[in-house]
Amino acid sequence: MDATPNLSIVVPVYRAHSSLTELCRRLIAICRENFPSFEILLVEDCGGDDSWSLIQQLAKVHSELRGIQLSRNFGQHAATLCGIAQARGEWIATIDDDLEHPPESLPAMMAKACEGYDLVYGVFPERSHHWWRNLTSNVARRLFRTAIPSLNYDYTSLRLIRGSIARALVTFDSPFPFVDGYLSWLTNRYAKVDVPHFDRAHGSSNYTTRKLVLHTLNILVTFSDLPLRLASWLGILSSLVGFAWLVSIVVERVVGHITASGYASLMAGIVFFGGLQLLVLGVVGQYIGRINFKSSRKPLFLIAHDTSSS
Predict the structure, then answer these.
(1) Radius of gyration of the chain from Cα atoms?
(2) pLDDT tens figures, 241-273
(3) TM spans, by residue (predicted)?
(4) In a 3-state reduction of DSSP, which class is residue 292?
(5) Under 8 Å CB-to-CB from 232, ≥6 apart: which residues?
(6) I want to staple 78 with a disulfide (CB 3.0 to 4.6 A). Which of 74, 121, 141, 193 is the partner?
C-alpha cells in the first residue's frame, strides 16, 4: 500500500454483520475503478454482534482493508474521529455501514471536491426514513441553523474531506463530539452532491428516539449558547411578569378590591417562578457539567485491537 493513499474511507461499524460484506465488496470495486490508491478503515464500536470477527476475516482477504476495534462503545462520531485519526489519505471519506449510502457516489463527490472545495457532502433529496423521523430531523436542523449559524444545513454522515482538514478534527477536545460542528469551524469551502438514499439493508436503525433526542441536546449545549440565552430571556421575562404582578396587587389593595390574601395566587406565583428558577439552574448546570467533563481529560476513544498489528 502507498504511504499516502489518494483516498481513505472511514466506516464506523455498529451491529452491521449482515451488511459489511456487501458494503466492502462495493467499496473495493468502485475504488479500484476510480482511484489510483485507497484504504478502507472499519472502526468497530463494540456493538456486541459478530462484526469484529467478520472484519478480521475481510482484512485477511483484502490488503486495502484495515479493521480497528474500540475498547467499548463510544458512539458513532467518536468512532468516525478514531478512523480519521488513523487514516493516511489525501482525501478522507466517511460512510455509514448500513448500505443506505451508495458507495458508487464517491467518484462524483471527488469530482466536485476537485473544483476547489475542502468538504463535500452527499445529500439526499428524498430520505428513506419514516415520515416522523424526517419531520423531527428537519425541525432539529432548523433549530441548529438558528443556534449554530455557520453549520451547513445539509450536513450528512456521507462526507468527503480534504485530508489536512479532516486530521485537524482530532485536535478538538470535547467529550460530546459532533463531526459536522467541528467542520463548520474549520472550513466554509464546502459543496454538496445529490445522491440517492436507500433503505437500510438489514434490521432497523440503531438510533432510537431517546438517542436522537440526547444527540440533539448535546449538539445544542456543546456548540451553541442558545440555551443560555433563552434561560436569560426567561429570567428577564419572569422578572417583568413578577414586577407587573406585584404592582397590580398593590394597586388592587389600595383601591380596596383585595380585602384578604389569596392562598391560590400565592401558591401559583411560587410554583411559576420557582419552576423558572429551576429551569435556568438546570441549563446552567448542563454547561457546568460539560466543563467538568472536559477538565477531566477523558479520552474520546481507545483502540483495543487493530488488524494491521496482528
Answers:
(1) 25
(2) 766 776 776 677 677 766 666 655 665 667 667
(3) 230-251, 263-288
(4) helix
(5) 280
(6) 74
Tell me how many degrees the CA angle 152-156-158 measures, rounded to the nearest 5.
130
Give the span between the Cα atoms of 100 and 254, in whole angstroms: 70
121 neighbors 158 (Cβ within 8 angstroms): yes
- Give the pTM: 0.74
Look at residue 59 and tell me whether its pLDDT is greater than 60: yes
Other CB atoms within 10 A of residue 186 CB:
18
* Placement of cell 429551576 in the chain: 278
How many CB atoms within 10 Å of residue 36? 10
Query: For 4, what's the count of Cα atoms within 13 Å in the CB-facing half-sphere?
Result: 5
Phi, psi of 9 (to 5 degrees): -115, 120
Pairwise CA distance, residues 234 & 231, whole Å: 5
